[in-house]
Amino acid sequence: MLAVSARATEVLGDVLTSRDGVGAHLNALRQAGLSELSSDIPISVSKGNYSIALSDRTKGMKYPQIVVYCVRVENSLRQKFQQFSGKVDMVVEIRHSADRLDRLEAETQACVEAVLRVLDQSRGELSEGLYYSGRYDVRFEPIGKGGKNFAQTAKVGLSLEANVA
After folding, report:
1. Among residues 5, 16, 71, 95, which one has the fewest Cβ atoms lying within 10 Å of its Cβ?
2. Distance CA 130, CA 120 (A)
């Protein structure tokens, strides 16, 4: 039932890139004066579990970037007559790079805030048989080398409930 993880990644990526997705929420934060992130910087959303070092070596990768991937699938068989009934643990990883250390953390936090706003408005059924309860946790990694001199990663962890007939 690993197709559940691919479907969950696809659906969550679509939620983040929708018309009311991360871009719209970042623009709202900018207009409210709550984000220092430049308005001309587009945010790319990709799907797949790969390291920041690998994305730095890949041509065409721009920051900030959001990477969506599945880290765990648990079939707990809560629904007796379903082929899969359990939880799918997902990560939305926000990666940002800048040449100035003093603004990097604030810009990363603005991107995280936009992701959390999208998740808050997406509670409930994301797709047929795929549900989001609204729970998440955020982990900030320390700033290190990468991208344009400095890079920071924040990971938003969340679980989706899935029922597949």
Report:
1. 71
2. 16
Which residue type occupies 137?
D
The DSSP bridge pattern shows strands 65-75 and 124-127 to be unpaired
**pTM exceeds 0.85 for this model:** yes
125 three-class SS? strand
Span 104-146, pLDDT tens digits = 888 899 899 999 999 999 999 999 999 999 999 999 999 998 7
Whole-number Å distance between alpha carbons of 128 and 162: 9
- The CATH number for 157's domain is 3.30.2000
Among 70, 71, 51, smallest CA distance to 61 is for 51
Determine the structural domain holding residue 9 and report its residue range.
Answer: 3-164
Q: Report how many domains make up the chain.
A: 1
